[in-house]
Design a protein that fits this description.
Blueprint (H helix, E strand, L loop, with lengths): L2 H4 E12 L38 H13 L3 E2 L2 E2 L2 E4 L9 E4 L6 E10 L2 E14 L3 E4 L10 E4 L6 E7 L6 H17 L12 E11 L9 E6 L2 H20 L7 E6 L4 E7 L9 E2 L6 E2 L2 H9 L5 H10 L4 H8 L2 H11 L5 H18 L11 H13 L4 H14 L3 H8 L7 H14 L1 H8 L4 H13 L6 H12 L2
Parallel strand pairs: 12-13
Antiparallel strand pairs: 1-10, 1-11, 2-6, 3-16, 4-5, 4-15, 6-7, 7-10, 8-9, 11-12, 13-14
Helix pairs in contact: 3-4, 6-7, 8-9, 8-10, 10-11, 13-15, 13-16, 14-15, 15-16
């Protein structure tokens, strides 16, 4: 009996999002990624004696915006707390976080998996400071003989978003996380560079027999920073727990770590409960009072979010798939919208954005954010195709020239003599010549061999260096072959 036949997975995720502020949550140190180790620090974020934190207001603005984007209630009164634990990357031996009065609570996200809609609850979202980073001598903490600590990341503002344990499949988990990251990106909460650790996932998972209601004992695997790692982690951990349960073993509530190279989770330490952290209110920070006007100002600044943008693109005639691909990337969606404002043909535009332009960018290791082809240039080229000035085949060459030179499509077409031949009399002379030179293909077509027509079209296009209007070529050939 397979795992899927016998057990049901129960999963919730804690997502840690680095907020896109220029300075840290309680001091003026830069949040810039990288830099020489332990250079983006000061007495406040190092927790030296005699210093006091000062809350960065932009962190609160971004937390409110994120909460609104996630359909959360925004608390009128919240506070910071000290979360006490002892670990080398924590300079003060406590983390300034929020416990019982978070800034956001009772939110939700709707996801669609295999055509089925499901609402995933969001318990809370709260502000906190990031810890430092352990730099291991080996590939993982389990294979290292020593570790150093880089405190540059200490004090970077985080928003921890805690879901309800509502997810019952790996596909649901990934759909939730992908949409969550999209929203954080669209709303400008974070740069969402997963490879730099801007978003990190803690995966809580347990199993229960199908048809039962009581949750099983959960494990928490910390600090995953890619969707592929989340998938592989869940695949491994659910199978590990299923095998243990089948062997009559008890699952231990514990914190585990993900070994990317070996593709497995490893036990790290027993899982702490809230009372283990000895939370108490942060005495150096005043409680936070947020009036409704503040919330409404932030609400008014919310941009169009992915779900709304996807629905709008579908209203322009795009398929659900095409709209989903385009809105999956904020940069691609922004490029598409700017081009769509200049050409009223969403399907044609989507084909070129998702196809030829995406291919060019990918081949050259670039993205839509730094595309050498502007939305205006692409829209201009597609307008020329719609008018019949150039063919789609010529358009591919023009696009490459725009990419390489930055010139406008009209200039490229003029300089290279690429204007499409749509003059019927001029094309008629060329078609006559092709028919005269290919008597066998003419005979084949007239004998019922339809493929011969494609060959003849190809010969005309070759003779005109791809500049002949393909539709007109087909029309002329059929007329002349019917005579």
């Amino acid at each position: 009996m397979s795992f899927n036949d016998k057990y049901e997975m129960v999963c919730g995720v804690e997502t840690h999002v680095e907020m896109a502020t220029k300075t840290k949550i309680f001091c003026g140190c830069t949040t810039e990624f990288g830099g020489e180790q332990n250079t983006h620090v000061c007495p406040v974020c190092l927790g030296l004696p005699g210093v006091l934190p000062v809350l960065n207001k932009e962190v609160v603005n971004l937390a409110i915006k994120a909460g609104l984007a996630l359909n959360c209630e925004i608390a009128q009164f919240s506070k910071f707390d000290r979360k006490n634990y002892f670990y080398p990357d924590l300079t003060k031996n406590y983390q300034t976080s929020q416990y019982d009065l978070p800034i956001c609570k009772n939110g939700w996200l709707d996801v669609t998996v295999n055509g089925t809609n499901k609402r995933i609850g969001i318990t809370r979202a709260h502000m906190e400071e990031d810890a430092g980073k352990l730099v291991h001598s080996g590939e993982t903490i389990m294979t290292s003989s020593s570790s150093g600590v880089d405190y540059n990341r200490t004090g970077v503002p985080l928003l921890e978003i805690v879901s309800e344990p509502d997810m019952r499949s790996i596909d649901e988990v990934l759909a939730y996380l992908e949409q969550l990251v999209q929203i954080m990106d669209y709303a400008g909460i974070s740069d969402c560079k997963l490879e730099q650790g801007s978003v990190r996932f803690d995966i809580n998972v347990s199993l229960r027999l199908k048809g039962t209601e009581q949750f099983g004992t959960r494990t928490e695997t910390k600090n995953l920073n890619s969707f592929s790692s989340v998938r592989r982690c869940l695949e491994y951990e659910t199978e590990r727990q299923a095998e243990a349960l089948d062997d009559g073993q008890e699952i231990i509530q514990e914190t585990r770590t993900w070994d990317e190279g070996r593709g497995m989770t490893l036990s790290l330490r027993s899982k702490e409960e809230a009372h283990d952290y000895r939370y108490f209110p942060e005495p150096d920070l005043m409680p936070l009072v947020i009036d409704r006007d503040w919330v409404e100002r932030i609400r008014a600044s919310l941009p169009e979010l992915p779900a709304a943008k996807k629905a709008r693109l579908q209203s322009h005639g795009l398929s659900e798939y095409d709209a989903g691909v385009i809105t999956a990337s904020r940069a691609m969606a922004a490029f598409f919208d700017q081009a769509l404002a200049r050409i009223n043909d969403a399907k044609l535009l989507a084909n070129w954005v998702m196809g030829d332009l995406s291919g060019l960018l990918k081949t050259n290791g670039r993205s839509f954010e730094d595309s050498p082809v502007s939305p205006e240039q692409l829209a201009g080229m597609l307008t020329l195709i719609k008018k019949g000035d150039i063919s789609g085949k010529i358009g591919k060459n023009v696009l490459e020239e725009i990419y390489n030179t930055g010139k406008d499509p009209e200039t490229i077409i003029k300089e290279k003599g690429l204007v499409q031949i749509s003059d019927e009399s001029e094309l008629g002379i060329i078609v006559d010549g092709i028919l005269a030179a290919n008597e066998k293909s003419v005979t084949d077509y007239q004998a019922g061999k339809e493929s011969a027509l494609g060959f003849l079209v190809g010969q005309v296009m070759k003779a005109t260096r791809g500049q002949a209007n393909p539709g007109l070529v087909n029309k002329l050939l059929k007329e002349k072959l019917a005579q």
